[in-house]
Amino acid sequence: MSVQMSWLLRQRHLRLSHRGGPERSSASITFAQATELTDPSPWLSGGELILTTGLGFDSDGPALGTYVRTLAAAGVACLGFGIGLSHSTIPQYLLDAADEVGLPVVEVPYDTPFAAVIRAVMKRISEQEYEQVVRAASVQNRITRAALHGGVDAIVRELAVATSTSVALIGRRAESFHPTDASNLVEQARDIARSIRSSASPATVSVSEPGRTVSLHSVPITGSAPTFLAIRTAGPMTGVEQILLGHAVSLVTLELEKPARLRAEQSRLNTLALGLLLDGHLTTDDDVHVPSYLADAADDDSHIRVAVVRGPSERIVDAIDAESRLRGRPTFARTTDTGCALLLRGSDDATFVARMMDSLPRSTCVGLSARLHITESPAALRQASLACAAAGSHDRIVEFAGSMLLASEPVQESLRAMAAVTIAVLAEYDRIHTADLVASLRAFLEANGHWETAAAQLSVHRHTLRNRITRCEELLAVDLTSARVRAELLLSLLAST
Predict the structure, then answer these.
(1) Cα–Cα dist 438/424, whole Å
(2) From CA 241, how far away is CA 213, in angstroms rounded?
(3) pLDDT-derived band of residue 496, with 50, 70 and 90 as boundaries?
(4) What is the pLDDT of residues 419-441, one digit of tens each?
(5) 145: Cβ–Cβ under 8 A, 6 or more apart, which residues?
(6) How far is CA 330 from CA 149, 322, 344, in A?
(7) Average pLDDT of the residues in 407-420
(8) DSSP-derived 3-state class of residue 164
(9) Under 8 Å CB-to-CB from 51, ≥6 apart: which residues?
(10) Model pLDDT for residues 344-400, shown as the tens digit of each residue
């Protein structure tokens, strides 16, 4: 907390006036004291407003210049010179030296007590400290309310917003940071955390660089790998920032240390709600508003994703619950015969799912739905199931897409079998007669039966194309005017290429 010389000069009851040094000094005054010592530097720490009447100096003595230079070297923010006692005016030697070293000098009238100046400065600093405490209390309430509704992510976000800094939570495979461009703080904090664990350094540490300071505070979580809350400030942490960081650490600890029994009961209720939701039994009057007990399952726009996981269900649910717990989020999971179904937030992408699945066997695969409104959860479940069914032996995560039909192995096998008795016949004819029936049929089908478009694609006359398509019909004994026949042959062509 501090005041500037400009603030001092605005205190009309003190009747101070600027006499020497810079007129617009930005030096911060953190303390005020009166002294008549000719060299008070051994008892100064910097930032002081020194008040003196110059009792120990002659008006025309060079010692005044030495005195001013000593104060400037000690980091004094401002010099207040009282006139009317030993000096009727401020000596010119002193003012010249003040201009030379850039030390602001103010004149204190004879009838203005030094005590009044000191009292004004210290009172203002005390007011600032109180304002900071009130602000900290208000911010603490905001962070607490955020924790009740948004868990760890909300705590990190509110702390960063309240302090205008970058904040990150790092732990076992878990991370949360704010703002979005503060992702580099995560790696920086992990580097510092590794140095803490590999040495006898305290669990709370600050590392300063020019223009910024990164401070880590340990989050004590029982039976868990070391977890830290990191904050990056422009300079050393202020008292308020330290208070808010400590409060945030306490809230994060409480959030991550929720009793296992309570979380297990909450997860059980979430499982029941998820089952009803995915089966289409949870609806609202307008299909827009989300039931309060499912609000934490969706993102801010009430959108969700469904993930269908194929693998050991019990191990999957335990892993998901552990990761959700680290993030301060509830778990919505329902076991199935082949694994489990999970309800995720709409903002959770494949990268997020990959982190959550990091501890599971490599044979585990996940089908992930598109981002849908929570009222469309049954559709999201169907999408995720199709994506999971389409996963190959080496696929880890498969996201639902429009081409999912052709990605399904059973569908591909059926289409390849159809191609063996259709497309293969045309290909053999092409080989023997040096024809181009397969390419012609594909161009015709992809042009949706439009002769001119397909002929232009093949660079042949449309009559030539008609002859080729007629030959295809004869060889396959089919009628290509049938939309169903054309669709089957096109799919067979796609599966065989």
Answers:
(1) 9
(2) 12
(3) confident
(4) 888 899 999 999 999 889 999 99
(5) none
(6) 11, 10, 10
(7) 74
(8) coil
(9) 32, 33, 34, 35, 80, 82, 108, 114, 117, 118
(10) 888 888 888 888 777 778 788 888 998 898 888 888 888 888 888 877 777 888 888
Peptide bond into 179 cis (omega under 30): yes
Q: Are 226 and 197 in contact (CB under 8 A)?
A: yes
Q: Are 252 and 158 in contact (CB under 8 A)?
A: no
Contact 422, 480 (CB under 8 A): no
User: Which of 237, 78, 57 is CA-nearest to residue 163?
Assistant: 237
Contacts of 153-161 with C-beta under 8 Å, sequence gap 24+, read: 153/327, 153/328, 153/329, 154/328, 155/248, 155/251, 155/252, 155/255, 155/328, 156/229, 156/248, 159/231, 159/244, 159/245, 159/248
* CA–CA gap between residue 386 and residue 368 (Å, rounded): 9
Show Cβ contacts of residue 394 under 8 Å, excluding neighbours closer than 6 positions.
Answer: none
Measured from the Cβ of residue 260, the count of other Cβ atoms closer than 10 Å reads 9
C-alpha Rg value of the chain to the nearest Å: 38
User: How high does pLDDT run on average in the chain?
Assistant: 84
b vs e for 459-483, b when ≥16 Cβ sit within 10 Å of the residue's Cβ? ebeeeebeebbebbeeebeeebeee
Please answer whether residues 458 and 491 qualify as being in contact, where contact means their C-beta atoms are separated by less than 8 angstroms: no
Q: Which ranges of 279-332 would DSSP assign to H, the alpha helix? A: 313-326
CA dihedral 8, 27, 97, 16 (to 10 degrees): 0
| Encoded tokens for 321 | 């619950």
**449: closest CA among 424, 430, 472?**
472
Query: What is the end-to-end Cα distance of the chain in Å, rounded?
Result: 74
Question: In this structure, are residues 333 and 376 in contact, taking their beta carbons and an 8 Å threshold?
Answer: no
CA distance 15 to 337: 85
Cβ contact 224:171 at 8 Å:
yes
Q: What pTM did the predictor assign?
A: 0.42
Structure tokens at 236: 């050393």
- DSSP states of 382-418 as a string? HHHHHHHHT--TT-SEEE--TTHHHH-HHHHHHHHHH
> 104 and 75 in contact (C-beta within 8 Å)?
no
Burial of 222 (0-12, 13-18, 19+ CB in 10 A): exposed
